[in-house]
Amino acid sequence: METIEPSQQNSTEDSQELKAWIFDIQRYSINDGPGIRTTVFFKGCPLRCLWCDNPESQYQLPQLFYFESLCTKCHRCIPVCPNNAISVGPDNSVITNRELCNACGTCTEVCPNEARVITGRLMTVAEVLEVIKQDAPFYRNSDGGMTASGGEAGSQPEFLTELFKRCRENGIHTTLDTTGHVKWDTLEKILEYTDLVLFDMKHIDPTKHKELTGLDNNLILENARKIAQSGKPMWARFPLIPGCNDSNENITAVGEFVFDLGLKQIDILPYHRLGTGKYERLDMEYPLPDAKPYTEEQLDEIKFRLESTGLEVRVA
Predict the structure, then answer these.
(1) CA separation for the pair 264, 160 (Å, rounded)
(2) SS3 for 158?
(3) Pairing state of beta strands 19-29 and 196-200?
(4) What is the pLDDT of residue 16?
């Protein structure tokens, strides 16, 4: 990952060319919309879902990933830190004071083992589009395209709108993977250049939704209704999390809400633990340490309950 200088963090408004904070671009993706796709992951998200598998997506500015298993405790990073954020800890370990660290990347330049990496890069529309266009033949042969995800891609709306517009000009199908927590007037402008919306449905009850994500779902449900009424193609997706939103009551309520939108199917996104290592790299505690992935039998039962609401159900 390219090192980002502190001066770049405030350069978005000064530059004539739109820029956005991106933490990953995943090529040959097959789970973020139809066909083969390139998924662009935007930094910044209004929600704080307990099960978030990309915690580096929540904060919009760059952050430091520390891979402790790669660290040889050479301590080269300590004297070069301009903020004195790095020190020696117990057993000669390396400790980073996250309150002092501004992810300037100076320490990453001297680390011989890439144990310290900056996640988050300021990119222009042209730079992102250049990566997307590399797989254009695969999009054409598979009815694929590009997907904007996050975080919440809608948190950087001007860039996203321009990127989608440029993709459209190049004949590339655009998909927005969204939390739904975006002001409607902002979302409406993005949708003008959006071919498909992937809309996450986490919980129907607003109080429970706030407990699980930090915010209620009033705006989210309202946006889901408006998108459905607009006729814009939309796929409903249901992140299924043990002990959080998998009660029979909520499963049925989610299914009925999606059915009432006029949609015919819903995708289940079963809980997994693939993102737990990222919390360690950010010195964050994982909020669901005891949660376990579902068995096939459990997923079959949930699938059957959703199907009883009249929907076709796919398990991702």
Answers:
(1) 28
(2) helix
(3) unpaired
(4) 66
Q: What is the mean pLDDT of each run of 10 residues along the chain (316 residues)?
A: 33 65 97 98 99 98 98 98 97 97 98 98 98 97 98 98 98 99 98 99 98 99 99 98 98 98 98 97 98 98 98 96
Helices (H), 69-200: 77-80, 106-110, 125-133, 136-142, 157-169, 184-191
> Is residue 250 within a helix (H) or strand (E), and if so which, with residue range?
helix 248-260
Phi/psi at 199 (nearest 5 deg)? -115, 120
Please state, in angstroms and rounded to a whole number, the distance separating the CA atoms of residues 171 and 143. 11
Tokens of 2: 């390219």
315 contacts 268 by C-beta, under 8 angstroms: yes
* DSSP symbols for 74-127: --THHHH-TT--EEE-GGG-EEE-TTT-----HHHHH-TT--EEEE-EEEEHHH
Instruction: Provide CATH code, domain 63-119.
Output: 3.30.70.20
Residue ranges per domain, the chain?
19-60+122-315, 63-119
* CATH class entry, domain 19-60+122-315: alpha beta
**What torsion do the CA atoms of 162, 168, 174, 178 make, to the nearest 10 degrees?**
30
CA angle 152, 269, 203 (to 5 degrees): 70
**Largest Cα span, the chain:** 63
